[in-house]
Design goal:
homohexamer; alpha/beta; Rossmann fold; 2 domains; 4-stranded parallel β-sheet; globular
Chain lengths: ~240, ~240, ~240, ~240, ~240, ~240
């Protein structure tokens, strides 16, 4: 089985974290390409960054389709470009935010999300609403940590995330925690031990979902929402992305 | 990895169908015990049958826990006894209805469910509402086929299910079909080919989700909804199920 | 008019409390049988207990049907086994949780529920969602009191319930309180006086609803959700519960 | 026990129908005053009529309070003036629409409403949404019969209502029918027999709910939504309605 | 373009505040009639006042229709009588509450409302639900200020409103504030400066929406909810309001 | 007042239609720049086109901000890039889809949308859900007309749109119609005359809303969802879009 995991920002450091998180859970026979976008934002913090991350992401999804990927993963917790990627791909496409929400829904009545910045809360809340899982989430919280500081030595990120988890458990009656950023993937196991509750991390969740969809032979529905793009001309820097007949 | 799949009715024929569907998608290293309940209804059609299926199911879940199962599957599309099983188990518990809904949500905007009998529609609608996925389901339809006729030679079941799928595609704008009974598991691939849309079948969906949860090391949250049962005395035929300290 | 009130646990002490609460509001001409389950859990605290309470409850519902009850009451605030009981019975079946929510909805914009243990909150929240009344409930709170301590001399239960009511009034803008356990029935009047707001207690609510449904000649709909169980064989200890043609 | 039933239009003929429907279900000891408004619209068909029905209704509610009514009923299916009446009264106030919805919710998964005119559908849909019961209603249908023709000899009303019930059962999977106008009260029993499903009629439903609330000693919450009106001056024809200190 | 702005209470002082707020945003060519009700409550605080404000309001709406108004505004934040006014009018009718909610929805993910008295919170919450914008509102808060004290010299109203805005920004993550009373119109600009967030005020919002609807040539739909009232006889003090053929 | 209207595809023909629709409703003093994207898809049909339309759109929004626009309009019914544009801009940003939904909500209980292609239905449904207006929309329908054929001589587009409107009025009880594509702007008046119901067209709706927001001095909230993008490096073709400090 072959997975195409796309980090839709351009940070190679984050790609490494994602690749490691994926490797921890992947089946023995699964081969994984983990790759960042060739162009676009160096990190994704809010809807403006999201917008400029999508074309680079779609280029990587297209490469994966051509290479025969059995499933794709979008490794940004905002699920950046998810609908466009599904329209492009025949193989299933899993966003790490969606993956974490769906997985958490199978082990709790209500979970809480701890993400990086306050501006990401509305993006995540809107995704929960779209997926239908908003009632399963007690609250989306922000630890007030910029994405690129998450894994920097000497950063206070871990302590701030822990403090927010503690509040989610005490104030929101959360039964499990969903970590709201790909960059937090390396911390899930330690946080689960520290707080004694399940901690769901989207990269791992999405890898197992992608494997599962592929094992079932399921592909993205090509009727309705994710119908194949209609052939037409894109101009300028996007000419090469024009849908072909 | 070891999975404990429980068919909560007493039909060994249906257990065989479930075991075959599970085997088709399971990872090479996964060992699976598929077993029906020792006592209870021979098939589950509506909430009265559901009620009497739960104790037998929980006995099998308890056996699986003792045997060290990494995850449990409840192989009835009603997700019979799901909350009780989660309260009992430390390992994650996946219902095949929930599994199918979550998996379908990853490949469509809206799916339709085709189940056996009209009386099961409210059960399924209520589950969709509880899980949060009611907006993702265009409609729950019944093919008017008793469960035990599904796989009988000479039955008209297949034609009736096909007719209902055809209506779901034409009238409900469904982008994929979810088959609403464990007994339909063997037909999923053929129906997908016939109608040219993804057909999601809950046994396969739940096996891959159970494997995925176990691969992530996730267990049922033991805080809140699924806290360990409080030790107390059950009397009569249920004495042996009394929660122990 | 004849009512069949079933306490779905095996505690005769709780049956007495329920019978007294029922007697306080019943019409002069109403005869009431209040009875606990013959077998099952001694108290119901969470979904595992719920599951083992249902068969014993259904036995009592069946007895009531045979005896010509005009309506049935399920006297556990979780509304344990409500759908199964409705499928079994022709007479209407009222759960004390549902009864309290519906009654409270007629005298407030928003109420709060005060129940016993935290693990019961998700059960109650899910019921509110199923009934449609989740927006009418400001919050479900737990007083952290085991069910069987509620009426024990020297227990701190009353003070803890009062403290939680006080919080519901101050923090949740609740306009009335719903007591979330049959065992609290005896305290409703005193709490209403103490806090100066309506306090709705499910046993009284359900008795008057059951009387009302019977007075209108309404019976459980036998089309769709609560259709008569299909004749089939139940095996083992449940053989005697097999639906008959 | 004393009930104050107000028909908020000025039609004495409709008051008689309401009084008869109330008498059929009331307890032996209940005394009932059924009275139409002294001024206002002769029938209520849509929101403009609703608006002019409220002051006359509130005058009758005030009379009932003064006379010591244990509960009030607003006998228009739109639940005209319900919030204002609750603000005015200490005794509980039940609208026949709300009463029918709540009662039907206790015997079905989904009901359908059959009302008179299309313009009443949005009013009823909005009430269902406010009460929280919109998911319990499969559809609100109009039989296209003016209110005052409902009980006229030679009218085609009965046939049209029957045709709409037939559609609700066939197309909406309704398990029971709610009759959406006080003027249909006399037909409920016959329609239930004709169609073989429960038919809920709001006058009977509200009388038993009003009796039930009174039997429990419940009164309208006076905190929040239904707080006592603040003393102030009303001018012109409404001077006499000015809230007193 | 001609607008008919109706203050549905009888306070001329509040009419002046409304007229000034309207004048600040109206287009050069717009002529505006701002008028209070001739009879009814001197201020509107809760549903009882609402009920008695509607007939006087509808008289003013009818005058505006006759005078050829291009649009009507109901200048009470409860949107008192909105449905009745729409049934009466052909020109569009905008409530200042609805206007503020819709406008705020265009510049934020979530806003908070700060109104006068606690009893108005349920009215506003119910309106948000009816309009569909309840998820766009983080919370409705009350500053505990009677309406008629809002603009009195020496009143503490401003400080209390400011304190509540401060809480909405800190506790509710509100991105903008909606002022929940026509009487607060004069304070919007100063509060926006003080707190550095957009402050939406309903009178200004409704004037620009009314102008916009008229500029598009849009009128109230006369099919369904707002169909023309059916000719019939109103009696007593409302005789003059009887719908004419 | 200065408006910046961006057609986020590259079709100059559609820009002309949009400019004419805007001119029909704009205030005398309003100056409008209507411009298509410099690069990207020639039409927007589904989420893949949406993704590649956003960068070109944002370039035009940035130009408008620099030029001092008082408000921006995104003239694609999908509201392509709305959140990103709001994060970028201080002036308010109105999408023509959102504008049409909000305006229609002020004149009906329920509207229907008629758009071009089936694949756009899920996009529009998701937007309605995000805005909160999903209950105000009876149904989103597709006329099965490619966007670029809408205004071609000899196309059957008008007839197909008319047929779908007719179905919306008959089957969905729609009280008004919302036209679901900027390219339909020129037809609104004729369709309103033909079908005798209000027909809301998004370009006109958004122009008047943009003017209204500007007249009130309202700007996009810069707290939470639409906070100013954080300065960082975008690489490749997007380097020039990097958020500046």
């Amino acid at each position: 089985m072959h997975l195409n995991i796309v980090n839709p920002n351009t940070s190679a450091a984050m790609t490494r974290i994602i690749a490691e998180a994926a490797a921890r859970v992947a089946r023995p026979g699964t081969t994984i390409r983990t790759v960042e976008s060739e162009f676009g934002p160096e990190s994704i913090e809010g809807p403006y960054d999201d917008a400029f991350a999508v074309p680079g992401l779609l280029a990587r999804i297209a490469e994966g389709e051509t290479a025969g990927a059995d499933a794709h993963v979008i490794a940004c917790f905002d699920d950046t470009g998810l609908d466009a990627a599904r329209a492009l791909a025949n193989a299933p496409v899993v966003g790490i935010g969606a993956a974490a929400f769906h997985m958490a829904s199978l082990i709790v009545h209500r979970f809480a999300v701890v993400t990086t910045l306050e501006r990401s809360i509305p993006v995540i809340e809107t995704n929960l609403l779209r997926y239908g899982l908003e009632r399963r989430c007690a609250r989306v919280r922000a630890a007030d940590v910029p994405v690129l500081e998450l894994n920097q030595p000497g950063s206070n990120a871990c302590a701030q995330i822990g403090a927010e988890i503690e509040r989610a458990l005490r104030e929101d009656a959360a039964e499990a925690i969903v970590l709201g950023c790909a960059g937090m993937a390396a911390s899930a196991a330690a946080l689960a031990r520290e707080f004694g509750v399940p901690v769901v991390e989207g990269v791992a969740a999405s890898v197992t979902l992608a494997e599962g969809l592929a094992a079932q032979g399921l592909t993205t529905a090509k009727r309705g929402a994710y119908a194949k793009p209609i052939p037409k001309t894109y101009s300028g820097v996007f000419a090469r992305f024009s849908p072909k007949p």
